């Protein structure tokens, strides 16, 4: 829509989406931050951005969401849009499940709630700096 | 004395001597026997005592093992509880941490820049800017779905383009964020100012400070609610291990709050509360029953389904709680063994097989019953409890 490269957030928790969006906007004002409240909405958004010719650099998805879980979504994202960096946001202490994600090389980064500002900087480091207008 | 008399006497003496000897020997033998008898008796007493002590110790070990098993079952469900609560606290904490950082930075920037920019604006445009900020503070934020947000943005962008506003995409984005549904002439005038870019950024920042504070408040409320639920879960009736009067519906809601993380994943929940379900009993124990039934139901519906909690009063002296899941059902071969201790269909380490057997103990201990009905797609566990538990101490 605006032609700016974007970061897509996928989480059904409004407090997470709002706070994360603002945090990213402050750190990387040259990036567009698009949000989806569910996996189905995320697919719709990604297709639309793709059709608009807008580049999606990173998808940050929550793990625990209704209907489709974050890891399953990122798995599908990997095969559909392999160029997009994948970040999984999790509040879960389930080590076994996390190990499976790591073993399958599903994500570029794991973001643990409650994340710190440095964690977000690390996510942003996945994206080369773009020349903002 | 005659000879005859003497002979008779000596005979008599010899006889008595013999008798005396015999009786002495007999006494000695008797004493000996007695002694031996006593020895045998005391020895068998000792053996009996020893056997008794061994049996008592074995029983004690068994009781201790059972207590340990019940305890480990409690610890296992505590583990699930901790994982769920950790998730439900980490989510608001993440939001609080991020929002607090944003507020700190944005306040510094906007407080210093806002007066300068406002001072450089013409009075009419200054008023329009203030109005825009007020609007942003009053609005509830970005639209609920990204679909709606993008639709509004596209619409506004087109209008701004037609009005000849510079950088219409950025302006449209901020206006949607501020909750401006339709463009007013004053907005357009403000956006035509050479300071428009700066104004939009500042307005956005000021509103972001406000919304971040709201976000923090909301997140803190949620965390507090979680901690409260945790407290009332552990101490549902005040003091530990005591009977109290409590509404089962309240306790069910507490359990639902604590297990929110697990319920959210594709499970549609129906709370069909037709009665408060006030009963007199050990609600700390009953909470263990609700947790167990809920956990089993959720486990039966990996990947989602329908969970129904129904509380009703079949008559004025009993309360019935039905936990129904839409899982595959319990296979016929498994059904007779469901309440059997140590029977489990779960993988090693996932369940002790004691959950339902403990539930049954707790419910029958309250003078109630625990039954189930199952078929593919619908399994119901029903707990029927008397309002006043049998044999419970009542004030």
Structure characterization notes:
The complex is a heterodimer of chains A (133) and B (395). By secondary structure, chain A is of the alpha/beta class. Helix content of chain A is 41%, strand content 20%. Chain A has 5 helices and 5 strands, in the order E-H-E-H-E-H-E-H-E-H. Chain A has a 5-stranded parallel beta sheet with strand order 2-1-3-4-5, sandwiched between helices. The two termini of chain A are 15 Å apart. Chain B is of the alpha+beta class. In chain B, the strands form 2 sheets. In chain B, strands 2-4-5-7-6 form a 5-stranded mixed beta sheet. In chain B, a hairpin with a 2-residue loop joins strand 4 and strand 5. In chain B, helix 1 runs antiparallel to helix 6, helix 2 packs across helix 5 and helix 9 runs antiparallel to helix 10. The N and C termini of chain B lie far apart (99 Å). The chains are: A alpha/beta (133), B alpha+beta (395). Chains A and B meet through helix 1, strand 2 and helix 2 of A and helix 1, helix 3, helix 4 and helix 6 of B.
């Amino acid at each position: 829509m605006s032609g700016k490269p974007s970061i897509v957030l996928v989480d059904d928790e409004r407090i997470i989406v709002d706070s994360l969006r603002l945090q990213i906007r402050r750190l990387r004002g040259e990036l567009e931050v698009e949000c989806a409240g569910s996996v189905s909405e995320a697919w719709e958004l990604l297709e639309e951005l793709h059709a608009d010719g807008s580049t999606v650099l990173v998808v940050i998805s929550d793990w625990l969401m209704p209907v489709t879980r974050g890891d399953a979504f990122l798995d599908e994202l990997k095969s559909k849009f392999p160029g997009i960096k994948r970040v999984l946001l999790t509040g879960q202490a389930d080590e076994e499940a996390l190990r499976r994600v790591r073993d399958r090389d599903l994500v570029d980064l794991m973001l643990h709630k409650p994340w710190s500002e440095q964690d977000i900087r690390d996510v942003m480091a996945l994206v080369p700096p773009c020349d903002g207008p | 004395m005659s000879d005859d008399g003497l002979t008779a006497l000596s005979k008599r003496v010899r006889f008595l001597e013999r008798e005396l000897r015999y009786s002495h020997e007999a006494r000695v033998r008797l004493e000996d026997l007695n002694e031996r008898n006593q020895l045998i008796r005391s020895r068998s007493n000792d053996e009996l005592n020893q056997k008794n002590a061994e049996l008592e110790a074995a029983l004690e070990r068994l009781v201790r093992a059972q207590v340990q098993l019940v305890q480990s079952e409690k610890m296992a469900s505590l583990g699930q509880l901790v994982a769920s609560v950790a998730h439900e606290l980490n989510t608001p904490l993440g939001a609080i941490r991020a929002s607090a950082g944003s507020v700190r930075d944005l306040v510094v920037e906007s407080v210093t820049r806002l007066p300068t920019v406002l001072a450089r604006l013409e009075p009419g445009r200054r008023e329009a800017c203030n109005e825009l900020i007020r609007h942003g503070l009053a609005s509830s934020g970005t639209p609920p779905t990204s679909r709606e947000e993008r639709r509004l943005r596209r619409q506004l962008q087109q209008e701004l383009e037609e009005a000849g506003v510079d950088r219409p995409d950025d302006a449209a984005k901020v206006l949607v964020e501020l909750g401006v549904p339709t463009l007013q002439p004053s907005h357009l005038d403000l956006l035509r100012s050479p300071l428009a870019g700066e104004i939009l950024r500042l307005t956005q920042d000021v509103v972001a400070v406000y919304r971040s504070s709201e976000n923090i408040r909301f997140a803190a409320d949620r965390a507090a609610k979680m901690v409260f639920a945790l407290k009332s879960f552990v101490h549902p009736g005040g003091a530990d291990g005591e009977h109290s009067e409590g509404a089962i519906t309240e306790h069910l809601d507490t359990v639902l709050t604590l297990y929110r993380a697990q319920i959210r994943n594709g499970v549609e929940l129906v709370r069909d509360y037709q009665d408060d379900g006030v009963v007199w009993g050990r609600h700390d124990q009953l909470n263990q029953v609700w947790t167990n039934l809920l956990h089993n139901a959720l486990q039966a519906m990996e990947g989602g389904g329908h969970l129904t909690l129904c509380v009703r009063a079949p008559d004025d002296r009993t309360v019935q709680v039905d936990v129904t899941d839409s899982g595959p059902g319990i296979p016929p071969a498994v059904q007779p063994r469901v309440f059997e201790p140590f029977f489990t269909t779960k993988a090693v380490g996932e369940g002790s097989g004691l959950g339902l057997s403990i539930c049954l103990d707790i419910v029958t201990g309250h003078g109630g019953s625990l039954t189930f009905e199952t078929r593919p797609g619908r399994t119901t566990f029903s707990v029927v409890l008397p309002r006043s538990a049998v044999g419970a101490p009542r004030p």
